[in-house]
Amino acid sequence: LMEERALSCLLRSRPTMEQDIKASYLMDHMVSDGVLTQDEEDGVLSKATRKEKDNRAYVSFYNALIREGYGTWPACFYTDLPQLSPEGGKSSPSDVLTLSEGGVPQRPTVFVNRPTLLTQVREKLRRLQNAVGWVTVFGMAGSGKSVLAAEAVRDHALITECFPDGVHWLSVGQCERAELLVRMQSLCFRLEQGQSLEASLRPPGSVEEARERLRFLMLRRFPRCLLILDDIWDINSLRAFDIQCRVLLTTRHRDLTDSVSGLRYSVPVESGLDEEKALEILSLYVNAKPQNLPEQARRIVEECKGSPLVVSLIGALLRDFPDRWGYYLRQLQKKQFQRIRKSSSYDYEALDQAMDASLQVLDDEHRELYKDLSVLEKDVKVPAKVLSVLWSLELEEVEDVLQEFVNKSLLFRDCNRRPYLYYLHDLQLDFLTEQNRAQLPVSLHGKVVCQYQRAYTEGPPTSGDEEDLYWYRFLPCHMARAGLSKELCSLMFSLDWVKNKAQLMGSAHLINDYVEYSAILDRENSEVRLQFQEFLSLNGPQLEQKPLPDVVQLALSQPCCSEVYRQALLQAQRSASRGQLYLDWVNKSSLESLSRLVVHPQQSSVYHTCFSRDGSKIASCGASSTLRVFKSTSGERLQEIQAHDDEILCCAFSPDDRHIATCSSDRKIKIWNVERGTLIRMFKEEYEEQVNHCQFTNHQRRILLATCSNDKIVNTKLWNMNKPTSQNTLFGHMEPVNHCCFSPDDAYLATSSNDGSVKLFEVASANEWKTIQVAQYFPESDEETSITVKCSTWSADGARIICAARNTAFVFDVATLGMLLEIRTSRLSTVQYCQACPTSQLLALALSHYTVELWDFEVNKKMAECSGHLSWVHCVQFSPNGSLLLSCSDDQTIRLWETERVHTSSAVALKRDFDVLFHQGNVTVVAADSKNRLEVRSGAASTLLFESEEQKSRIRSTCICGQGPTVALGTDDGTVQVLETPSGNILATLHGHTKTVHHCLFTDNGQTLITSSEDATLRVWKWMTGECRVLEGHQEPVRKFHLLGGSSSSPMLLSWSFDGTVKVWDLSSGEKLHDLKCHEAAILSGDVTPGEHLFSTGSADNSAKVWSCTSWKMEFCLSGHKACVRSCRFSWDDRRLATGDDNGEIRLWSMLDGALLKTCAQNTKDCMDSFHGGWVTDLHFSPDNKVLVSTGGYIKWWSVQRGEALQTFRTTGANLKRIHASPDFKTFVTIDNMGILYILKQVEGRL
């Protein structure tokens, strides 16, 4: 009998459970567990009963609560669970919880055990106990593969011994790359629940990124879990899960796992049940013993060909009409429907008859409703609310209809999630599609769109539930299939749609929509389609962040001629009239996109792109198995070749540009005629794994092709196009080789491998020449995280070789193998590809964080960063003359950059040491550029007024005189110059400082110039006469100062230094009035109240202090920051002080008592491990003291009262040093670390 404590728990909870729980649903599970009989279930439903049950009944009841998703109820019973000893392979309560949390489907209500197959699957799974690998369960559609896979893991010993880290089920199905990403994102989300990983803050933005995320999770968090992939259709989907873990997969194709790594086992599932098992299913449906079934039962099984799906359909009908055996047999024998896929090996006719018979028992109204389900996509589960919209019925009515469909096996229900999700088997959907083919395009899909528009008259749904996800994923599809092109354009050319879908699903799906429906959208307006697509491409990383940035604010940075900008401005004006803050980047028209050409060659990832040797053509390849060739000038397509059976990993032009080589995951290498697009030669017999890379020699005198593969030993080969087999095999690497490249003179071949090394081979002899062990430069790595060398490239003179591993590029001397340079990129990124310019010392790096970087590898200096890609950049290639640079990405685009323009654009960018003058509504900016010239720009368009000659010493500080057209600059060598603008006349050259001048300032009358220096002194200049007063006393560099009482007859100067002191000077006499030891560490910031009663200091000792300007004593010590206090600013009413630190945190303090008022920070750190994208470097209050603006990695505006962010402006670059705000707090000026000038104006409200 049941344990007393378990029975007591049930009795205590009985009154509440009677109100909450549907007993009929739970009893279905308990019957399948064998603790209730069908008679007992009928008795419970008909009258009140009390049966004595044992502990298994309690456990079964508990498990049924979990399967039906009853929230907190299972937890109420968990502590009183009886301890059962698992017998006969049965699952324990903890196993059931593990399987439920992992998404494993529950056992069907009518379940027939298949012990022989179960034993085979479990025996193969046990072989994965100590090694990663694959167990494939394959068989025809409807043969019960999924049920078998789910049942196989209902084994306590198997889970505890082999898969103690859990079991995770993922239904994959036949899906495009974007849909595959959705499924992988959901798996990542499930695995990251309860983890504190920073990476879990946003979903992965590409299949490759998701694959790497899953690889990390499986390696570090769930090393001994089992991943079940249900219904895999193709090799591309499978490869996305080749992540070195233990996998059980169901599929219709036995050989899918041939191209993945690890152990491989398979279990065939016979196409049909034997007669005994099929009869057992029917007997369970009609609650009779198999031997008591009528004679027609055997003939029905024969007509069903033993298909579990078809037998279940007929069984569900017979449960409701047990006297119709003959009728349903005749229906199966009629053979009414003809299938399209005549060549299929599957027997669809039996299913047709079973489906038709099932539909005939529905009333006319429900039959029409069921017909509407033919608009669903395969492997898509929908909530009842979507069908409530489609059918215009109350949700409760819809649930009743769906329950009827489920009871008749016409529909499946996923009970692992609440609300329940409903779906059709592929064969059922095929049946409906064929039956309603004439009505599908216009009538049925059109009905979906019409019903959606009727339900959402106020705009798209925004709740974020499963219903919303369905509409955002499939509404464009329904519009396209219904031929509603104008409605589709109206939807997708709407910033509201973009904003809402990005919030729910990120940008990758949006871009896929614009590509997939481009033919329809371009008929309406191709320019607008490209504008939206470009907006998404450029802002992809931001649109993947959680929480989602303000899309309207992002769109305001688009060109003024863009439809995206037009809609954003209108929305911003309406929102501004309600008090919301938006900023318009008014000088953005002066900046052109650095991408010369953007090509969207295919609707899938682009893995490789290359120039022809004359630079006139571009070739690209990727996941679509298609090779494409374009003109490099216009992007016009010249060739499109269906080149391989699988994704193409690399392509390369021959030295004479007559041929192009491709290599693929299908293990083949092909040579094509570029002009005609015809196949010249194919090499297919010598590799057993995918071929990763191919490259021709550089010269025509002896044309060879080099290739490398994932094979363990025979992985690098040289080919002569005129021979049917390889000319040489280069032995040396024992692990896969990722990349190979010839030296400039073709004498050597460099190979990069997963074994952590680069090898140099002599081409003539095919012998190994030298080896570089790159892995030794990562001493912190271990065996679990081996070093993979992605690629290598030769310098133009062949004297150096550069290789990429993780986030680093290493430069080695070929002669000595000594490392010359180590170029490290962001720690959060990996180098996917590298190439050295053939005409200069530039090195291009393709990075996983969506950018291309240009480095000068002679001096280890980053020269430019090319932003624009949405996702991982896989490849970069220079043109033969080095003037152009190609990049390709997972975002399905190729970008063409002008090397000199990108390089020059960064080289002449403005420096962040700048000054701004606001005067009568005009803005004047003075700044140095990176060619060390002084620039003066004016107006909203930042028109260049003046540009000086290049200075001999680097300009480090600038200032504008408010009294006339005069500017000053300070340099690294201590020189100070005063210039007239716009003539450029040098009015004064002031010598005295011996080191860098960090800060300079004109007094109000413009006759005095004050400077501070690295030499620990300040100087007060009467610059017109050259008279100078030196203020000495600081022991370390003086970074900045503040003028007190500038308009009084006895002004004072407040200076602070790295020596931790503040000194007060009489400006007229130069006398030191006060010397305050404020901090033990360097003082990094300071400010004075507008009323000049208090001053503040922020220090590297993580504290800020407030001092009296009359007693010169400390008023408050403000502690609490966990990093250097780098900025501080008083409010205009002297009542508050804002301080910002290097963690990105801002604190607001009361100047009445020094109390902390608010902490301004977002909830989580960003990708820079900061709350503000970096250090908080500057702060300003609005004149009414209600708003605070701050700079760090970007610009943020805060509500002073609430401490909440009002708006964020994300600059192209980062690491902002300061921001200038106009007196009315409506114009803001800053410069980012890429040298881009931003003049931002607050958007005015408009009704």
Automatic annotation (TrEMBL):
GO molecular function term, any single one: ATP binding
Coiled-coil annotated residue ranges, if any: none
CDD domains, alphabetized: WD40 (cd00200)
WD repeat copies, ranges: 641-682, 730-771, 866-907, 990-1022, 1031-1075, 1076-1108, 1118-1159
Protein localization: Cytoplasm
SMART domains: WD40
Assigned keywords, A-Z: Apoptosis, ATP-binding, Cytoplasm, Nucleotide-binding, Repeat, WD repeat
Highest taxon in the source lineage: Eukaryota
Family matches, as SUPFAM superfamilies: DEATH domain, P-loop containing nucleoside triphosphate hydrolases, WD40 repeat-like
Domain spans labelled CARD: 2-53
A Pfam entry, by short name: APAF1_C
A single GO cellular-component term on record: apoptosome
GO biological process: apoptotic signaling pathway; regulation of apoptotic process
Function: Oligomeric Apaf-1 mediates the cytochrome c-dependent autocatalytic activation of pro-caspase-9 (Apaf-3), leading to the activation of caspase-3 and apoptosis. This activation requires ATP.
Subunit-level organization: Monomer. Oligomerizes upon binding of cytochrome c and dATP.
The protein, known as: Apoptotic protease-activating factor 1
Lineage, broadest ranks: Eukaryota, Metazoa, Chordata, Craniata, Vertebrata
